[in-house]
Amino acid sequence: MEPHVYLERFGGEPLPAGEPDAAAVATLQEAHVRGVPFETLSVAGDPFGSQSGGGVRLDLAALFEKVVVRGRGGYCYELNGLFGWLLDALGVEQSYVAAKMLRADGEARPPANHLVNLVTLADERYLVDVGLGTPTMRRPLPLDGRVVTDDAGVAWRVVGTERPDAHGLTQYRCPRTGEWTDRYLFETTARSLDYFAATNDHLSTAPESPFTGSPVVTRATADGHVKLTPTQFVEWIDGEATEHPVVGEEEWRERLREAFDIDYPW
Q1: Is residue 216 within 8 Å of residue 136, measured between CB atoms?
Q2: Count of CB atoms within 10 A of residue 185's CB?
Q3: Which one of the listed residues 114, 150, 174, 225 is annotated catalytic?
Q4: Has this prediction a pTM greater than 0.85?
Q5: Residue 154 burial (CB < 10 Å; 0-12/13-18/19+)?
Q6: What secondary structure, in 3-state letters, does 141-208 show?
Q7: pLDDT of 210 higher than 80
Q8: Looking at residues 212-227, what average pLDDT do you find?
Q9: Comparing 177 with 136, which gets the higher pLDDT?
Q10: What is the mean pLDDT of residues 229-241?
Q11: Which segments of 17-62 are extended strands (E)?
């Protein structure tokens, strides 16, 4: 496991000498979300064939082999878990923290259903998240409430919460809208990767998990993102979505290869 090999995987550059700052980490984060897809193929498997997903192992060596050596993506535990290792190896003060993605009804379940990196840069704390679906977070998000707007026009902020099981709440606002949407609650207590094992096992195997149905693959682009399901390919550019039907196995695999650099069998 060599950091420079991981950087080559997504076109990242080593951090400049000296104390890392938010701008340098933002460059890494942006490159990662554009180069490494969020995907649930390891959970849901092949929607057209008999190839199983293979499961999700929260082991750094296994994650490195999957994401870096085999050129795959993953979901939050995999992507943020491995990226956190990289940040630490590059000299960034980092810890894993637990978060709860919010459902449409405002509930957050199960516990620790999201993993995110909490980093300290120049004595300020930020969330660094490369493990979201859409919209993805492209820049370090300060915990002090400042609004961060990325090149795709998506704004992010952290607000306070009165819930006893969280220290803050992330919200986003997409282009062409004036409303903020709640994304996830988070804690600031440092956790080990093993802390997330039980929830990872549940989310990657339980029939009621949102990930064990049809697979989804997403990736950030310069001005939006792309998303693939077994029946649809969607392109978001500056907040406008264009939907393309996906007809059958051959077209799905072609989209998977061309838009996300994932070949079958994976």
Answers
A1: no
A2: 20
A3: 114
A4: yes
A5: buried
A6: EECCCCCEECCCCCEEEEECCCCCCCCEEEEEECCCCCCCEEEEEECCCCECHHHHHHHHHHHHHCCC
A7: yes
A8: 94
A9: 136
A10: 92
A11: 38-39
Structure tokens at 223: 């001005």
Are 191 and 96 a contacting pair, CB within 8 Å? yes
Closest alpha carbon to 259 in 228, 215, 214 = 228
Q: Single out the catalytic residue among 46, 76, 150, 174.
A: 76
* Cα–Cα distance measured from residue 98 to residue 109, given in angstroms and rounded to the nearest whole number: 12
- Range from 70-74, 99-103, 143-147, 212-216 carrying the lowest mean pLDDT: 99-103
Examine the pLDDT at 13 and tell me if it is beyond 90. no
C-alpha distances (whole Å) from 255 to each of 41, 44, 67, 71, 221 are 14, 17, 19, 16, 15
Query: Is 46 noted as a catalytic residue in this protein?
Result: no
Quote the pLDDT of residue 106: 66
For the question of residue 114 being annotated catalytic, the response is: yes
Q: Is 76 a catalytic residue?
A: yes
Q: Which of 32, 129, 150, 174 is catalytic?
A: 129
Dihedral pair phi/psi, residue 111, rounded to 5°:
-65, 150
Task: Find tokens 């409303």 and name the residue.
Answer: 179
Where do the H-state alpha helices sit in 50-155? 60-64, 76-89
